[in-house]
Each structure stands twice: as C-alpha cells, then as structure tokens.
Amino acid sequence: xxxxxxxxxxxxxxxxxxxxxxxxxxxxxxxxxxxxxxxxxxxxxxxxxxxxxxxxxxxxxxxxxxxxxxxxxxxxxxxxxxxxxxxxxxxxxxxxxxxxxxxxxxxxxxxxxxxxxxxxxxxxxxxxxxxxxxxxxxxxxxxxxxxxxxxxxxxxxxxxxxxxxxxxxxxxxxxxxxxxxxxxxxxxxxxxxxxxxxxxxxxxxxxxxxxxxxxxxxxxxxxxxxxxxxx
Length: 231
Prior knowledge:
The protein is an alpha+beta fold and about 230 residues long.
C-alpha cells in the first residue's frame, strides 16, 4: 500500500510539473533562504495589521478586535522523489470548530505551551503523530484572525520524509498531500465568494483531485506564496 501511495504521488507530481511555470519549483534550501528573517510574534494575539483593508467588514473588525485566543498551526512541507509536498488534514466532522474542513495540523495555545510554535508542534504530534524531532522549523507567516475567534500563527516546517503518521481519528479523518508547486502557481487559483454578515466577499480556494482547500487555510497558503515568491 505504501508503495502504491508513493507511485500515485509521483504520477500526480509529474502531471503538475508538466503544466506549471518552472519559477514555482523550489528546493528545501530555497524555502529556508526565503523565510530567513521571519520571526515568531512576541504577542501571538496582535492581529491589528491583519484587520486592515477591505477584506474585513466593519462588524467583523469589531468582533475580531476583541479577545482572541492564540493558536499555532504547522505548515508541513515534505520532500518526496525530489519534489516538495504540503501535508493537509481533513478534520473530523465531530469537532466543535471547523468540523469537516481541510486544515493544517495545529490548535490553541495551552497554558503549558511556551509559545505558539510549541503549541503547533504539540498539536501536530497529537493529531497526526509527527514528533518535533522530525520537523525543522524554517520560518513564520503573519498571524491572522479567524471568524471563530482565534489569532493563528502559521509555523513553516520541513518534515523528514521518514516521519510516519499516526492519525488521531477523533480529530483528523485523514491526511493528504498537495505538490507545493501546484499551490504556488496562481493559475490554479479558483476564485469565488464567501458570505459573511450577509455580504459576499471575494475569496480564493484550491481544488486538488477530490479535495477542496478554502477559507483560512487557503488564505495561509496565499500568504506562504507571497513570501516564497517575493510578491
């Protein structure tokens, strides 16, 4: 089964590579270099800058400028067969927040966590079984608010290909991988709308095979693209 999955990943990667601009094919060293200088936020709930702009309606800004809960997610990048892939999770339908949605592993910062990076790494091990020793943290994206009241800091990490998954079915239904070049190529953006406060807002999502990546996760991917491609 493991060899079949590897074969399917390789076939999909070859298909993607044949139709994507070569500028978006990065190595792990490229990732490290382009994320150099990014820092873990000193205040994990400071999202004032993130609330600027037309993307946030005034009622949303008022709600989100209140008390937010700090959270961290890991953006896990894995090299397989010479190509980088991003690991994502399909959340359990039984969860209280974001049930049944695609997300990065991670969660709320607890009292025993030293910072949101520790929270992201702890939650990643709890959800999908990848322990910190298999993860090399290479950078950070800007903290962003979510409509569920979290201030989420994405932690970008290179995951060893040898890392084995051990999924907690109470939190994660399954995992899947998407080639990083696919997500970095703007020609794969699916433009649509989200409805909030009875208003329709422009949004971008990604469709990979039978998976739909949208909402906060898609926004984090766009943020990653902006940093990696220096846009």
